[in-house]
Amino acid sequence: MDAVNKSNPQSGAPCQEDGSKSPTHVPDWSNNNSIKDGNQISTFLDKPHFDINEDQTFRFVLEEHVKDNVQENYQPAQIHIQDPLSVHEQSNGKQPVGMPSFETGDINALQNDGIQQPQSQFELLDVLLPSLDTINPKKCVVVHPEVVVHPEGVVYDTTPVPIQRTRRPDRWNSSSYSTNFGSSSGSSSNVVKIYEKKHPFVSDFIRGPYNYDLFDDYAMWLREGLLVRHMNKMHDEDRYKNKKAELAVDMDLGIHLISNKNWFYSLSYDKQLLNDEHIDVVLYYLRKKSKYNINSRYRYTTVDCLFKSKIDEIYATYAKVGSEICVANVESDIRDYINGYRLMAAIPWNTIDNVFIPVNVEQKNHWVLAVLSIVERRIYVYDSYRAAGHNSYVRDEIQKLAQLLPMYVSMEIANNSDDTQDQDIAYDVMYVEDIPQQGSGDLDCGIYLLAFAEYLSEGEGIPVQYLDSKLHRIRYGALLWQYAAKKMEEGAVSENEAPPRMMRPPARIDNSQLVRID
């Protein structure tokens, strides 16, 4: 358009400071006169600004301007401009089609209509120029009323087809609620499988027959990675090669998770002293045996090794004259044992006849089984080793139970006898004779304790005079190993044997302590 303006000068146009004439069709933006009619935009085309007799026509000038000024990266398109109106048509007062009207100085109307004001008087408004999209083939073609664009040579970009997404919802994004309510539907979480076999002694009895094939498989598994001189190691030392004792997956034995093969080694090899975990695990399964064998006439339960430790703590406090140590919390734990609130698979003492109590004689590193007969109010002691310098230590430990248990049992178990009299009378103690005895120097007292308890759980006493400790070591280890391995293989867990919550009686409030607030 600048080229058009230069080729069609008008006389009487204002002059610039350098002496050149300014075209009459360029509006003077310095004039701030407002437009009378705000709906119309005045234009320089209100009057003819070119001579039809001139050689350079409007079409020719615009094509020359496009050739000289369009950048090289743009390919020229074929543009056809409609011929301007003739002088005759303009003399009739007709306005060119598609050209808005414009009067000089109407800047406020331009601003109100959202049209940006040019910074120079030689610039034209964008609405008066053909859009550059008409000469840029890479952009969409915008056809103006005065411009006709032919589509020849114009390349259009093809819109790519979006790739269909394969949805794979993650488990964390899936709904926790079931949307399928059919007969086979279930929740999104996996259902925990309960192991059907309640304890390892369901079909394997201490009287026999024994599964020797199982014993061989267990012994072979136990020997894998074992040191050559494993018998020379101390009790707490590792008897396996480097990292050979660590289990890939912990074995679940109800109250304990076993992560090391040394635990089974101490249980199954000769001349190894059993610890509290070995005793508690086997007595736990014997307790489950009594709980689920409701047809048995011999009703019993067991306690853990911690029970005797709490009795020792209470006895030591009462033995000190003038001691100010409070053992109320420890005594509360003893009452929880009696009411069945302390152990897994516990049975309240008011529903059974006998209680198996493991006793550890710390001075002699010796295990003894004490059986409390609630009906007979008597304690039976099953000791696998009797000697002159040994019996006194065992007697001292048993006397602690005989003196303290009557008080707690009478407080928690209601009967027709006088509670005050029962608390003052200690239990009778009887040492059972004619039972199997271990050799001097052997460390098999723990195996004898477990065998005595299992024999008594059958309700027939101890019918043997000799006990093969090596066989029972392998038997207990193999049964526990097979039980944990089968449960792990099936992906099952044991049933919930947590004790019930104890119902606390409501606190009594003295009326004299009540305060009324108005």
TrEMBL record:
Residues 1-40, 87-107, 494-518 are annotated as: Disordered. Residues 499-508 have a biased composition (Low complexity). Pfam families: Peptidase_C48. The keyword Protease applies. Residues 257-456 form the Ubiquitin-like protease family profile domain. Keywords: Hydrolase, Protease. Residues 1-13, 29-40 have a biased composition (Polar residues). Belongs to the peptidase C48 family. This is Ubiquitin-like protease family profile domain-containing protein. It comes from Solanum tuberosum (Potato).
